[in-house]
Amino acid sequence: MEIDSDGYRGRLVDRELDELVPALAAIALEGAKGVGKTFTALQRASTVYRLDDPAERSVLAADPARLLEGTPPILIDEWQYLPSSFDLVRRAVDAGAAPGRFLLTGSASPSTPATHTGAGRIVSLRMRPMTSHERGFEIPTVSLRELLGGGRGPLEGQTDVRLEQYVTEILGSGFPGLRGISGRPLRAQLDGYLQRIVDREFEEAGRRLRNPEALRRWLTAYAAASSTTASYETIADAAAGGQAERPARTTTMAYRDVLQRLWVLDPLPAWLPTRNRIRRLSSPPKHQLADPALAARLLGVDLGALLDAAPVGPAVPRDGTLLGSLFESLVTLDVRVYAQAAEASVGHLRTAAGEQEVDLIVERADGRVVAIEVKLARTIGDRDVRTLQWLAERLGDSLLDAIVVTTGPEAYRRPDGIGVVPAALLGP
Asked: What global pTM score does this model have?
């Protein structure tokens, strides 16, 4: 992605905004703090109201109609601090506001919700941390959008990216403000981010926190469950760390709900097909944090610990190593952003007894899909594609393509038609 003269690195969501802003009166960018919502919106805004500034917010709370004044696009930044601003914009849209008038950003669902959802008036766009492509990690040669086209054309491209570089990217974070920072300063920034969630943002989201350390332990156990479908009871047990009493279910559900409202948790929903019937599918989400760097920091792992597969963190059952789980988290982040740009959704597939699992199912609006397996491996054998072959037998023409994302050096198609793509070469 290009960097302009002001140091702004273009984001994939910019392309979506290019399509939507000229046609829609109000667009809300939503996502965790630090993903770049404000900086991206500022590239377009002519008038800016910053509701996270207490002084500015108090003035606007006394006279909310001022939010409608100014040269458009009007940016209402962190609207959740003044929920009535959402209703104000909705009413302005109902009254015939011109396309491109309002941009809103939000880092949380407010504790006091707006009186109307805004559906049909305010279009929401999810913004996540930077993908590998947005970071300038490598020049991709395989497009998810083209895979969704179903042509099953040849796959080509080579990369010199190796496992250690993927680990560096996992640890390095996709928060744009942290790019270029490494070592102790990066760890301090990530620690500060997590501490603000516990000390401040949790209660700002409307939930009193009686035991901050218990929340931190639960978050750490959730991080250990990255890329798994571990039950919330299992996560609560891991958070208890062998103590006689684990957190009450009501407490852990409150943790989950508030952290999802803060966009810190980003669980991947189960895929339930509409075009084809696959029996005995399970529906629990696959656990993911907003950025795999947050999971790594909560667990206190560095490059050496991940490469050595050292046992760390709470004991949560998983297939394979922690590094494998965090590599899947990185690929999942990439695929979700690329899929959104292509107007597709992402889920995961798991049969009820766990006999068959597909890491990522990317679904078009018509129900046809691309299936993606993620393997922490340089080479792929027949055993690694059995689940994709099983899925192909059941979906038939509804399966547009199937690929395995790896840490290998080359993109190609196997004789059976399944693609093999290095993670660094997968792009939008």
From this structure: 0.94
